[in-house]
Amino acid sequence: MASSLKNNNNNNTLVPSVPRMYSEVLRNKPAIYWDYEQMKLKYGNHDDYELVRRLGRGKYSEVFGAVHVKTEAACVIKVLKAVKKKKIKREVKILQNLRDGPNIIKFFEVLKNPASEYTALAVELVHCVDHRTLYPTFGTSDIQYYMFRLLTALDYAHSHGIMHRDVKPHNVMIDPKRKILRLIDWGLAEFYHTCQDYNVKVASRYFKAPELLLDYVYYDYSIDMWSFGCMLAAIIFRREPFFQGADNNDQLVKIVKVLGIRNLRIYAKKYNIHVDPAVLESVERRQKRAWEDFVTKSNHDVATKVAIDLVDRLLLYDHSERLTAREALQHEYFLNVQPPSPDETSALEASTSNP
């Protein structure tokens, strides 16, 4: 494990930090739990599945709706393209470790077609509605219901020593008819080891935490909480995405125009983080804006004081000061949200069982 690293040719070294919660999770688990490089993949039979239609494609994968031939159960096949075996092992190991987690996509098995180089993952199918259509229809109770469930998924992952590292609307599947939420696509997820340096080229730009934009490699679970905060802000202020930069530097500028320059300087000094002088110059006099500035006639019904307070406690430069997922679940905003009953959970589990 690295203990220090130079940042952008700065003469000083970055100051590592440790999260308030779940920092020692992996110390109490055997290496077989987190050492994915040593695992041996066990493949299911790809002939057991019939592809029905293409659902989408990304940089590293194509996703298909499929049917398990013997049981006729619907599922999703995620075909991984040009992905290193190490990365495949990591995603599989993480999905296996989170298999029983609440509101986390259910993983069935790994598949490989002998005639091709591609590996595929068979996972649960969720009949979701596009977030651009769905989120604008949400009232406060809807936002509370689904954000509570997303936080529950994040807290479960974090409590198992896992950072998602790509929380965004496209990776949050919601079926409003059955009131189901699933956090999907764990391809960028990683195990958290105290004071380990990580690749900052993770998360999608609009949801990248400041530490990623500033090349701070000792990040932790709190990058997921920033991304969650961006999602929540976008929903309550009816502004999707909330921070929309043209590139990484511009993304940081967009953040500074809301959070102000003073706290960025304090944050950078605390962790010996180098900030591009050009960025500093472009926002030299920016002061923190009040969140109430974003309340309008079209969003005032959901951009309530308590909702804004939760956003304010999440969208902080200093990652060590952001609410953890567990703390966010206990925020006043979710005071009246009830976890699913055992009967409801059992019914949902039965309807999404392994094919």
UniProtKB/TrEMBL annotation:
Protein kinase domain sequence ranges: 49-334
SUPFAM superfamilies: Protein kinase-like (PK-like)
The protein, known as: non-specific serine/threonine protein kinase
Domain of life: Eukaryota
One cellular component (GO) term of this entry: nuclear lumen
Key words of the record: ATP-binding, Kinase, Nucleotide-binding, Serine/threonine-protein kinase, Transferase
Annotated ATP binding sites: K85
Biological processes annotated in GO: regulation of cell cycle; regulation of transcription by RNA polymerase II
PANTHER family the record matches: CASEIN KINASE II SUBUNIT ALPHA
Lineage of source species: Eukaryota, Metazoa, Ecdysozoa, Arthropoda, Chelicerata
EC number of the protein: 2.7.11.1
Enzyme class: transferase
Catalytic activity reported: L-seryl-[protein] + ATP = O-phospho-L-seryl-[protein] + ADP + H(+); L-threonyl-[protein] + ATP = O-phospho-L-threonyl-[protein] + ADP + H(+)
SMART domains on file: S_TKc
GO molecular function: ATP binding; protein serine/threonine kinase activity
PROSITE patterns with a match to the protein in the record: PROTEIN_KINASE_ATP, PROTEIN_KINASE_DOM, PROTEIN_KINASE_ST
Record CDD domains: STKc_CK2_alpha
Family, per entry: Belongs to the protein kinase superfamily.
